[in-house]
Amino acid sequence: MEQLNYQTVVIGGGAAGLTAATVWGRRCGKGQVLLLEKQSKIGRKLLATGNGRCNISHQAVSPEHYHGDRHLIKSVLSRWSVDDLTAFFQRLGVWLRSDDEGRLYPYTNQAVTIRDALWRECERQGVQERLSCSIVGIRRTGGQFVVATDDRTIRCGTLVIACGSKAAPSLGADDSGYQLLKQLGIGHTQLFPSLCPVTTAEKYRSLKGVRAKGKAVLLRDGKPLQETAGEIQFTDHGLSGICIFELSRAVNEYFACGTMAGQSCQTVQIALDLLPDHSFQEVYAFLENSRRLFTKETADRLLSGILPQPLAEVLAQRCRSKNKTCASLTARDLKQLVSEAKHLLFTPEKAGDFAAAQVCAGGVDSRFVDPATLMSRSIKNLFLCGEVLDVDGDCGGYNLHFAVGSAFLTACLSDNRT
Ligand SMILES: Cc1cc2nc3c(=O)[nH]c(=O)nc-3n(C[C@H](O)[C@H](O)[C@H](O)COP(=O)(O)OP(=O)(O)OC[C@H]3O[C@@H](n4cnc5c(N)ncnc54)[C@H](O)[C@@H]3O)c2cc1C
């Protein structure tokens, strides 16, 4: 079996691995860094980000937008700002621009610009790569790492693990990174999907594909825990859309750990306000007026001018008013219609699916990684970066910001240089 020697091996050719390879390449010199990727293409997930546009960061990056290991989050963000990321990509010849909400994208609006810029920089730094590479084992011997692939053995002084997470298996994600780390005695916290749709007990097939702008409030034991606003998408299984994605982390924590935001709880519900710009009284007055105009029409007519028709019908049905004429609706019926429109309750039914998740919550246990250096506490010159760590961010570019930043910093924070 062929034996190869490198100063540094990076495992994983995603956002984090590619970034790490560029910085380690610059540090170690040409031909000294090897990037190993199990898929036949690098950066597959990166290409799918931001609907192919790659939302790489956000002007509002701050620890509040992240979950998981607080020390790690603060340590990375204190050294890796939006300006640092922007300057990094500028050095790679890529301009970024932000949209009205502060989300940063490549100026081209194409994820491939980011992927290719990272890869060209790897080439410029003389990084070598092996694609479609299955790693069968890693061990440490005589101060070196020995990485065994199916057809060769690679020795290196520094090993960077950037294998990402289990989220989005259709893009090649699996748990092999965690399995490799297990071989080195490094464990992980509970893993669960985040930024994904929520399956609810209430299933309205007629609402499949319906979208509405609204507010979503996550209720822990009946009390508001988190609130988001934006487009809500209805599916035949429950709820989706960015503001639901934001709530999915806490929902899935509940199913995985029995807690929400770290506190134990018994029940979880999502309340939708489908008319968030108007008070209860305003909506009531509007319906009262419409009732007089449309006396002979059915109750859903009252809402169908302010909500999508299928939603108007579901709300009327929930109030048992669907077959009543507007003229026959009582004040109580009207109040109930307003309540449904402004406080439509859904009960999450089961944990989300990694197949539909953008990220994975949980990751390498903080006991195994030094937040100051991103090096393993127990194994010198073993670095970890990207989503394999116990850090996940909100929607909006926060995850890629962390993946790129943590990878960049692996080569900058440690004094244990190869
Ligand atoms: C559909 C979708 C859209 C998203 N959009 C955004 C967005 O717009 N903005 C944002 O901030 N975040 C977004 N995310 C999240 C973001 O993509 C991830 O957080 C980020 O890619 C993590 O980077 P990473 O390098 O750690 O992992 P990955 O990008 O997953 O890369 C890991 C790489 O390691 C390889 N690998 C794994 N195990 C092994 C092994 N044993 N041997 C060799 N190679 C291995 C994998 O094949 C993969 O190429 C999105 C995610 C999805 C699924």
What's the rounded overall pLDDT mean?
95
- Contiguous low-pLDDT stretches (5 residues minimum) are none
Question: So how many helices?
Answer: 12
Largest sheet: 7 strands, mixed
- Ligands bound here? flavin-adenine dinucleotide
Strand content: 25-35%
CATH architecture of the largest domain, by name, is 3-Layer(bba) Sandwich
Total domains: 2
- Rg value: 25 Å
Describe the global form: elongated
Notes on the structure:
The protein is of the alpha+beta class. It has two domains: 247 residues, 3-Layer(bba) Sandwich (FAD/NAD(P)-binding domain), CATH 3.50.50; 156 residues, Orthogonal Bundle (Helicase, Ruva Protein, domain 3), CATH 1.10.8. The protein is built from twelve helices and 25 strands. Strands 1, 2, 7, 8, 9, 10 and 24 form a seven-stranded mixed β-sheet that branches. A seven-stranded antiparallel β-sheet has the order 19-18-13-14-15-12-20. Strands 3-6-5 form a three-stranded antiparallel β-sheet. Helix 3 crosses helix 12 and helix 8 crosses helix 11. The radius of gyration is 25 Å and the shape is elongated. The two termini are 26 Å apart. The structure holds flavin-adenine dinucleotide (FAD). Flavin-adenine dinucleotide binds next to helix 1, helix 2, helix 6 and helix 12.
Summarize the structure.
Helices cover about 30% and strands about 25% of the residues. By secondary structure, it is α+β, with helices and mostly antiparallel strands.
Keyphrases for this structure?
FAD/NAD(P)-binding domain, alpha+beta, 2 domains, Helicase, Ruva Protein, domain 3, seven-stranded antiparallel sheet, 418 residues, seven-stranded mixed sheet, elongated, 27% strand, binds flavin-adenine dinucleotide, 25 strands
